[in-house]
Specification:
54% of the residues lie in helices and 0% in strands. The chain is mostly helical. The protein is globular.
Length: 195
């Protein structure tokens, strides 16, 4: 059994770590939202919506921004210095804040029927698995796969092209996007995207 003195040290060492799990400061959120818009709802085709993304995905993505090995040029330009200024606790606080915000809903566009078929069935003849196997049956995302439902339509299109052209590196997504024709990319964005 630990002595009272050693258990006091243990409690003292745990409390500061727990305190670091509080909400991010207003200055930190203002910096995020200067590009990602208030509530991180996305401002342009280059800035994704963060609201409603999974906590684990956001933590992983923020950590990944400190490595140039698999990021798109735009991500590196926009996020490299910001990500390097955050320690692990700050990344977790930001991720928790945006994961807890309500997500935008998908607003299916005119090509949604084809997009839904691609999303649910993939392209079996080309070895492309259904998108839902990583991103969830309704595009809600998973620990490793981002939420796609309600993401900005123009952002989804841009990212699929980045994977298609290997301007953004992620093995499974590169393979998938390289099999897609331009109309199929548009259809997936039409099915999943929000306004």
């Amino acid at each position: 059994f630990p002595s009272r003195r050693s258990s006091g040290l243990l409690i003292g060492s745990v409390l500061p770590a727990a305190a670091q799990q509080g909400p991010p400061g207003e200055d930190m959120l203002a910096r995020c939202e200067s590009c990602h818009a208030p509530g991180a709802g996305g401002r342009t085709s280059a800035t994704p919506r963060l609201n409603g993304q999974s906590y684990d995905y956001l933590v992983g993505r923020l950590s990944g921004m400190t490595s140039g090995l698999n990021q798109s040029p735009h991500s590196l330009q926009a996020m490299w210095s910001n990500a390097h200024q955050l320690d692990d606790a700050a990344r977790r606080r930001i991720a928790r804040h945006y994961a807890d915000l309500p997500a935008d809903n998908a607003v299916p566009g005119p090509q949604a029927a084809l997009g839904r078929q691609l999303y649910e069935d993939g392209l079996p003849s080309q070895g492309v698995t259904p998108c839902q196997s990583c991103h969830g049956p309704s595009g809600e995302g998973s620990d490793a796969g981002p939420r796609l439902a309600g993401q900005r339509r123009d952002y989804l299109t841009e990212q699929l092209w980045a994977f298609n052209l290997v301007a953004r590196v992620h093995g499974p997504m590169n393979h998938t996007a390289m099999q897609l024709m331009p109309g199929q990319i548009d259809a997936l964005a039409s099915y999943l995207g929000g306004d």
